[in-house]
Amino acid sequence: MTEARAVGTKGVPREERESQIVRAGTEEFGKNGYAGASMVEIARRVGVTKPLLYQYFGSKDGLYLACLHRAGDRLTEGVAETMAADGEPPERMPLAVLSAIFETFDNDRYAWKLLRDPTVPSTGEIAGVAVGYRYRLDGFALVGAAQLMHSRGLDDDRDIEAIAQVWTGVVDSLISWWIDQPDQDAAAMTERCSRIMRNLFGW
């Protein structure tokens, strides 16, 4: 890559500028959804022009996809690594997964919202990518529910599906609550959830 292409606006390297735009875009899309997000506002947050966003990402869809891939890859990889780790008994895995999510999004909380944004187009590339990430996350929930139920001698498939559905809703609600609690970092949320689970379920 030539020096002219490697450097973005005001001497900022292109890779760094793209990262700044994606982070600003993630917050804007997370707060307002795909439909309500403003490219002008994203440009203002970064301190660049709106045409530069289109130069880097091609379109609003292109920027949203960059933000979505960043959020989805980080989350699914973190959850997969946590669930693959040895040593956690099934009843402790829900807390371990929550802790991994909190750590992943501690300084980037609105990224979570992109994964279940109800305002994205119902067809096309964005819809397909979003569905793919949700499918992976729902699959993790199903595996975790099965492990937990089997450890207690229960193997009804419909029960497992129901528990996985409940767990998915609980996680979404917890993260949504956490977004509005800036004083609660990842460690504080993990401790809070540990206390809740211990008192409610004896885990």
Mean pLDDT: 91
| Alpha carbon gap, first and last residue | 54 Å
| pLDDT < 50 stretches | 1-8
Cα radius of gyration in angstroms: 19 Å
Characterize the overall form. elongated
Overview of the structural elements:
The structure is a single chain. With 203 residues, the chain is mainly α. It has helices spanning 3-6, 14-36, 39-46, 50-57, 60-84, 93-105, 111-114, 125-151, 157-179, 186-201. The longest helix is centred in the last third of the chain and has 27 residues, at 125-151. The relative contact order is 0.11. The model is unreliable at 1-8 (pLDDT under 50).
Summarize the structure.
The chain is built from 10 helices and no strands. The protein has helices at residues 3-6, 14-36, 39-46, 50-57, 60-84, 93-105, 111-114, 125-151, 157-179, 186-201.
How would you describe this structure in keywords?
mainly alpha, disordered N terminus
How do the helices and strands line up, and which of them pair or pack?
Elements: H1 3-6, H2 14-36, H3 39-46, H4 50-57, H5 60-84, H6 93-105, H7 111-114, H8 125-151, H9 157-179, H10 186-201
Helix pairs in contact: 2-3, 2-5, 4-5, 5-6, 5-8, 6-10, 8-9
